[in-house]
Amino acid sequence: MTPAARVQTAIEILDTIAAAARDGGPPADAIFAEAMRARRYAGSKDRRAIRNHVYDAIRNVRSAPVSGRAAMLALADADPELAVLFDGAAYGPAVITADEPRAETGLATPALLKLFDPLVGKAECAAMLARAPLDLRANRLHSSRAELATIFPDGEAITGLADGWRLPGETAAVQHAAYAEGQFEVQDAASQLAAVALAAEAGQTIVDLCAGAGGKTLAIASAINDEAAILACDTNRARLQQLPPRANRAGATQIETLLLNPGQEVAMLADRMGKADRVIVDAPCSGSGTWRRSPELRWRSTPARLDRHVADQTKLLALGADLVAPGGKLLYAVCSIIAREGRAQVDEFLTRHPGWTADTDILPDGVGRPAGRGFLLTPGHDGCDGFFLARLTSPC
Over the chain, what is the mean pLDDT? Predict the structure, then answer.
């Protein structure tokens, strides 16, 4: 493919990604993969160049553009080498005209910026869209961070995490035999810190209410050396089905999965109520803390979607509280930097649940910042995904 043809292909893919963002369609990675399957003539260099164009445009544009061309033009206006590829050649993009629309650039729309937690200032903006590193978590059941350091010597320890090892983002770690042997998992430092903040102990009864594919479930099992019963729940069958083989690879034998039917969660968990020593609610959210990895989520943010997330979080927190035994602890976690999903959600929970208290010492020294009655992790301050964490203790 010519350089100009690569740009035109990126424009066509961006058209599909923007439409999917507006209509709730598939994520950008899935769209890109399908587009490349349909263009088998594209070589590895072509695919890499097209991907760079697509994601550079997504990171540069603050909301879903009117067209993929408008997004690429916003890049070309600041990049003369890109602009010259708009030359009207065969298979390439048409020549640029001064009056055609350009997408608006920036981190997010003014309306969305106003929703950020007060701790997220202007200094965070660049970090929010920088390319993320690759974080690994050593699985204590099979390995250690020292062993990861031997396998991947170009990495570095992650502050506050005994098992965390950070590598350059382009590292193909999962292709190493150590991954197949269960020695490590790929997991952002913020998610690892959530498992630490739960403060689980051997012999306890633990419920992961929104387990998904089980990343935090496995981190908890590793931290307690597989010495506690963990119930991993979710309403998404496809995601939850990924956990058993992952647990088998990790050597975690005390994990039970439970697929919940939406709207029937209370009935299906009736025999578990009031019995769990620890419950983690990693609730569905805007995903605003993960923009480094999924920058097109900015294009999907709407007031209606945020309202639905907040309502779901409220219900899940209430369900999680009912599962906690007297004196037990509930960890609320969202990969969000939006105040409504973080500190405000916890304030409302504590108002509705008299006698519950928020713990004040849940993260390692120097990690995170107090945000209301919880803690906020951000890319700029902590070098990890944006995350809000609050650990709440039930009255005895």
Answer: 96
User: 221 and 162 share a domain?
Assistant: no
SS3 137: strand
What total number of domains does the chain contain?
3
What's the burial of 90, exposed, middle or buried (CB within 10 Å: 0-12/13-18/19+)? exposed
Residue 121: is its pLDDT beyond 90?
A: no
State the first-to-last Cα distance of the chain, in angstroms, to the nearest integer: 67
* Region class of 385: left (phi > 0), else alpha (psi between -120 and 50), else beta: beta
The DSSP line for 266-287 is: HHHTGGGTT-EEEEEEE-----
* φ, ψ dihedrals at 135, nearest 5°: -100, 135
Q: Tens of pLDDT along 11-43?
A: 999 999 999 999 989 999 999 999 999 999 999
Active site residues: 335
Neighbours of 355 (CB within 10 A): 10
CA distance 69 to 115: 29
Q: Which residues contact residue 128 at a Cβ distance below 8 angstroms, ignoring those fewer than 6 apart?
A: 107, 291, 292, 337, 378, 379, 380, 386
Alpha helices, DSSP H, located in 301-355: 303-323, 343-352
Q: Are residues 195 and 182 in the same domain?
A: no
Give the domain CATH number at 180. 3.30.70.1170
How would residue 125 be classed by pLDDT, with cut points 50, 70 and 90? confident
- Pairing state between β 134-138 and 387-393: unpaired
